[in-house]
Amino acid sequence: MSSTALFTAPEVAAAAEGVGAAAEGVGAAAEGVAASASVGGVGAAASSTSSAPAAAQRALAAGPPAATAAPRRAAAFGRFILQHAEVPSPGGAGKPLPLPLVALGSLLGVTVLALVPFLVPGVSKRFRVPYNPTEAAALKSMLRAIPPGARTLVDLGSGDGRICLAAARELPAISAVGWEFNPVLVAWSRARALLGGAKNARYRCGDFMSESCAKDLRRADVVVLYGVQEIMQAMGPHLAKHLPKGATVLTNTFMLPPPWVPHDKQSTVLMYRNR
User: Fold this and answer.
1) Tens digit of each residue's pLDDT, the chain (275 residues)
2) In three state form, how does the secondary structure of the chain look?
3) What is the rounded distance in angstroms from the CA atom of residue 237 to the CA atom of residue 259?
4) Could you state, in order of their start, the residue ranges of all structural domains in the chain?
5) Which of 81, 183, 184, 259: CA 20 to 30 A from 30?
6) What CATH number has the domain spanning 128-273?
């Protein structure tokens, strides 16, 4: 901010005096009007205005100049402020920011706010990893690896919902359920499914290590999981415990721990079967 005062102390004092005088003038005028009404109303009972209050007599004697000079001074001070007061900015003391710079800053701010939900670590209460979408090639491999006749697919850590949405479109008979810890990504996924007309794609907000998710796993024919090695180590026994026999597990890049052994691989997608 600029270190130069917008107006000097004498000017401020003069302004205060002008405002004060304006208030006195208005008050005096009001008293004068009241006194005039009083005097006019009792004119038959008094010979002059000497019976009116002293303040009213002074107001009547002062006349209009005393009531109008102060407002003029106050108005002049207001014009001075409008002409000289400027809003300091980083562009320089008293210099407004250029409009293109303001527009660029606003655009950057909105962009950052829009990206934050996609960068917030999620997946589960235990595992805090950032959002990392599945690549198009891996997504195609996963869709090809879904066995014929599969009725239920569960995507653990569904992110923006692309796997469930693609499966629902490619296989209308399948019911796709995505589990995601980030509520903003869940809302985004639901909006995509709604706008895309994918009624057989649903998304739940919660921890995929929870009992609620385990209920979906017990009914799953296919499970999709894209997690770092730490997640895979924990999910190995968890999937073995809750998945039905013969269920297919598809992982991207990272392997499940033994005794899980992949029986096939396409691109970066590893295919397992719960035995």
Assistant:
1) 444 444 444 554 554 455 455 445 545 544 544 444 443 443 333 344 444 445 545 544 444 444 444 455 555 655 555 554 444 545 555 566 677 776 777 777 666 555 555 555 444 455 556 678 899 999 999 999 999 999 999 999 999 999 999 999 999 999 999 999 889 899 999 999 999 999 999 999 999 899 999 999 999 999 999 988 889 999 999 999 999 999 999 999 999 999 999 999 998 999 999 99
2) CCCCCCCCHHHHHHHHHHHHHHHHHHHHHHHHHHHHHHHHHCCCCCCCHHHCCHHHHHHHHHCHHHHHHHHHHHHHHHHHHHHHCCCCECCECCCCCCHHHHHHHHHHHHHHHHHHHHHCCEECCCCEECCCCCCHHHHHHHHHHCCCCCCEEEEECCCCCHHHHHHHHHCCCCEEEEEECCHHHHHHHHHHHHHHCCCCEEEEECCCCCHHHHHHHHCCCEEEECCCHHHHHHHHHHHHHHCCCCCEEEEECCCCCCCCCCCEEECCEEEEECC
3) 9
4) 9-84, 128-273
5) 81
6) 3.40.50.150
Phi, then psi, of 218 in degrees rounded to 5: -65, -20
Q: Which residues pair with 57 in a beta bridge?
A: none
Helices 229-242/211-218 angle, 10° precision: 60
Q: How far is CA 240 from CA 163, 226, 247, in A?
A: 22, 17, 10
Whole-angstrom CA distances from 93 to 3, 6, 69, 208 are: 8, 11, 35, 55
